[in-house]
Design a protein that fits this description.
The chain is of the alpha+beta class. It has a domain at about 10-75. Helix content is about 15%, strand content about 15%. The protein has a three-stranded antiparallel beta sheet, with no helix packed on it. The protein is globular.
Length: about 140
């Protein structure tokens, strides 16, 4: 969320087109009205210069039992054919599994995963096994 706010949303013109308010045990508030920027929610933006580009910024934790329903709601109203989805996620360097010492890794670093349908060139090296993606990005 911080990366999107600092580098993506400030770089070009986006407009807010929707908000999803979440509540689970990790949320900071239980109020369902008057959503504040400090509350737990997901904002949806549309690129003004290209309305086919949408961005969802999740500033909250989506619990495991909410992930499937959340994804169905987000993607349920979108056309699936020709849809390209890019997911940005972070994890602590201590969780990264590598043969070399994590102390010698240049941080931050970027790794990618892709499906077999994605035929384009990826912008960075692929994530090595046995590393895994979990939580909402995995869903």
């Amino acid at each position: 969320a911080a990366f999107l706010s600092s580098f993506i949303l400030d770089s070009v013109c986006w407009e807010v087109i929707g908000v999803v308010k979440l509540w689970n045990e990790w949320c900071r508030t239980s109020s369902s009205t008057n959503v504040l920027p400090t509350d737990s929610f997901c904002l949806f933006y549309r690129l003004i210069s290209d309305p086919t580009v949408l961005l969802c910024q999740c500033s909250c934790y989506v619990a495991e039992d909410q992930q499937f329903q959340w994804l169905e709601k987000v993607f349920g109203s979108m056309q699936k054919k020709g849809l390209q989805v890019t997911i940005l996620s972070t994890c602590p360097v201590a969780d990264y599994k590598t043969q070399e010492s994590t102390l010698t890794l240049v941080s931050p670093f970027l790794k990618a995963l892709k499906t077999k349908e994605f035929q384009e060139q990826v912008c960075c090296p692929l994530l090595e096994q046995p590393n895994i993606v979990r939580d909402l990005p995995a869903a």
